[in-house]
Structure prediction request, 75 residues.
Amino acid sequence: MPEGATADGSGTLVVDCDRCAVRGRACSGCVVSVLLGPPAWVVWDADERRAVDSLAEAGMVPRLRLVPLPDRKPA
Prediction:
Protein backbone atom coordinates (compact mmCIF):
# COMPACT_ATOMS: atom_id res chain seq x y z
CA MET A 1 0.00 0.00 0.00
CA PRO A 2 1.35 3.45 -0.81
CA GLU A 3 2.59 5.45 2.14
CA GLY A 4 -0.16 7.68 3.47
CA ALA A 5 -3.04 5.83 1.85
CA THR A 6 -5.46 4.44 4.38
CA ALA A 7 -7.01 1.02 4.61
CA ASP A 8 -9.71 -0.33 6.85
CA GLY A 9 -9.75 -3.83 8.34
CA SER A 10 -11.23 -5.29 5.15
CA GLY A 11 -8.28 -4.14 3.07
CA THR A 12 -10.16 -1.30 1.36
CA LEU A 13 -7.81 1.42 0.14
CA VAL A 14 -9.01 5.03 0.33
CA VAL A 15 -7.16 7.45 -1.96
CA ASP A 16 -7.95 11.10 -1.24
CA CYS A 17 -6.50 13.10 -4.12
CA ASP A 18 -7.21 16.33 -2.22
CA ARG A 19 -4.64 15.17 0.36
CA CYS A 20 -1.93 14.38 -2.21
CA ALA A 21 1.13 16.64 -2.05
CA VAL A 22 1.90 16.14 -5.76
CA ARG A 23 -1.64 16.65 -7.05
CA GLY A 24 -1.53 18.47 -10.35
CA ARG A 25 2.16 17.79 -10.98
CA ALA A 26 1.91 13.99 -10.91
CA CYS A 27 -1.75 13.32 -11.81
CA SER A 28 -0.98 12.45 -15.41
CA GLY A 29 1.38 9.69 -14.25
CA CYS A 30 -0.95 8.25 -11.59
CA VAL A 31 -3.11 5.18 -12.07
CA VAL A 32 -6.13 6.95 -10.55
CA SER A 33 -6.17 9.57 -13.32
CA VAL A 34 -5.47 7.01 -16.03
CA LEU A 35 -8.35 4.76 -14.99
CA LEU A 36 -10.90 7.26 -13.64
CA GLY A 37 -9.87 10.79 -14.54
CA PRO A 38 -8.83 13.15 -11.74
CA PRO A 39 -11.35 12.44 -8.94
CA ALA A 40 -11.43 14.03 -5.48
CA TRP A 41 -11.03 10.59 -3.85
CA VAL A 42 -11.23 6.90 -4.67
CA VAL A 43 -12.11 3.81 -2.64
CA TRP A 44 -10.77 0.45 -3.84
CA ASP A 45 -11.54 -2.84 -2.13
CA ALA A 46 -8.85 -5.52 -1.74
CA ASP A 47 -9.68 -7.23 -5.07
CA GLU A 48 -9.58 -3.93 -6.96
CA ARG A 49 -6.25 -3.05 -5.34
CA ARG A 50 -4.77 -6.38 -6.43
CA ALA A 51 -6.09 -5.85 -9.97
CA VAL A 52 -4.59 -2.36 -10.21
CA ASP A 53 -1.29 -3.59 -8.74
CA SER A 54 -1.23 -6.40 -11.32
CA LEU A 55 -1.86 -3.95 -14.18
CA ALA A 56 0.94 -1.71 -12.90
CA GLU A 57 3.34 -4.65 -12.51
CA ALA A 58 2.64 -5.58 -16.14
CA GLY A 59 3.35 -2.01 -17.24
CA MET A 60 -0.21 -1.50 -18.49
CA VAL A 61 -1.01 1.45 -16.19
CA PRO A 62 1.14 3.71 -14.02
CA ARG A 63 1.48 3.04 -10.31
CA LEU A 64 -0.43 4.99 -7.68
CA ARG A 65 1.62 8.16 -7.15
CA LEU A 66 -0.07 9.36 -3.96
CA VAL A 67 2.20 11.49 -1.77
CA PRO A 68 0.11 12.42 1.27
CA LEU A 69 0.18 15.87 2.80
CA PRO A 70 0.99 16.01 6.50
CA ASP A 71 -2.03 15.89 8.83
CA ARG A 72 -3.48 19.29 9.53
CA LYS A 73 -3.36 20.31 13.16
CA PRO A 74 -6.17 22.54 14.45
CA ALA A 75 -4.96 26.08 15.16
The chain has two helices and three strands. Residues 10 and 46 are 7 Å apart (CA to CA).
